[in-house]
Amino acid sequence: MKGAYRRLFATAIPAFTLLVLFAFVFFLPQVHADCSIWSIKVDQIQNGWLNNGEMPIYSVAVRNNCDIPGGCRLGDVHLTCADFNPSFLIDPDIFRHLSSHDCLLMNGANLTRSGVVASFEYAYPKLYPINVSSVTCFPQHP
Ligand SMILES: *[C@@H]1O[C@H](CO)[C@@H](O)[C@H](O)[C@H]1NC(C)=O
Ligand SMILES: *[C@@H]1O[C@H](CO)[C@@H](O)[C@H](O)[C@H]1NC(C)=O
After folding, report:
1. What ligand is nearest to the CA atom of residue 135?
2. Per-residue pLDDT of the chain (142 residues; tens, 9 = 90+)
3. Measured in angstroms, how far is the CA atom of residue 131 from the centroid of ligand 2?
4. For the purposes of burial, counting CB atoms within 10 Å of the CB of 142, is it exposed (0-12), middle (13-18) or buried (19 or more)?
5. What was the pLDDT predicted at 18?
6. Residues 30/67, Cβ–Cβ less than 8 Å
7. Residue owning the nearest CA to atom 3 of ligand 2
8. What pLDDT sits at residue 114?
9. What whole-number distance in Å separates Cα of residue 92 and Cα of residue 106?
């Protein structure tokens, strides 16, 4: 009987280890592909001057890096933006200042395609730290 138990464990443990390994190999890419705040990336560069060098102009590109075949379902992207009040108006349908440290991207729309999902320019004496504070991820279609 003892021998049978030992044999059972001798096969059960490697089998279990293999199962765990398979689970990792097959499930990890899916977990990785899931959406998170890291799916949205904000790039800013200073690319010009307003009124002959009076004030820098910053160019902002928001990228959706979530790359799931058929589209990544995320939306309601909020970003930090200090007290965003640049020297010329930004289309609020693209970037809307809601309250202190809270700006909304594309009116909260779902951003299903990957790549640049929004871009705009602003002029201000210094760069606003614009970082993603939250996104809403929706379940992917199987
Ligand atoms: C975004 O997609 C979700 C899930 O399909 C849906 O429930 C929600 O209403 C959509 N939001 C907008 C703003 O279209
Ligand atoms: C926020 O954005 C600014 C400007 O792009 C960047 O320099 C800074 O590192 C970001 N902060 C965090 C916590 O990611």
Report:
1. 1
2. 555 656 655 666 556 555 555 554 444 444 434 688 888 999 999 999 998 889 999 999 999 988 777 667 889 999 999 999 999 999 999 999 999 999 999 999 998 888 999 999 999 999 999 999 999 988 766 5
3. 6
4. exposed
5. 58
6. no
7. 129
8. 85
9. 8
- Which ligand minimizes its atom distance to the CA of 129? 2
Residue 140 CA: which ligand is closest?
A: 1
**Ligand 2 centroid – CA 84 distance (Å):** 15
Among 113, 110, 130, which residue's Cα sits nearest to residue 122?
Answer: 130
Tell me which DSSP letter residue 88 carries: S
Q: Report residues whose beta carbon is within 6 angstroms of any ligand 1 atom.
A: 75, 108-110, 138
Hey, whose CA ends up nearest to atom 2 of ligand 2? 129
Reported in sequence order, the residue ranges of 8-126 that DSSP labels E, i.e. its strands, are 40-50, 55-64, 74-80, 95-99, 102-105, 115-123
Quote the ligand 1 centre to 82 CA distance (angstroms): 27
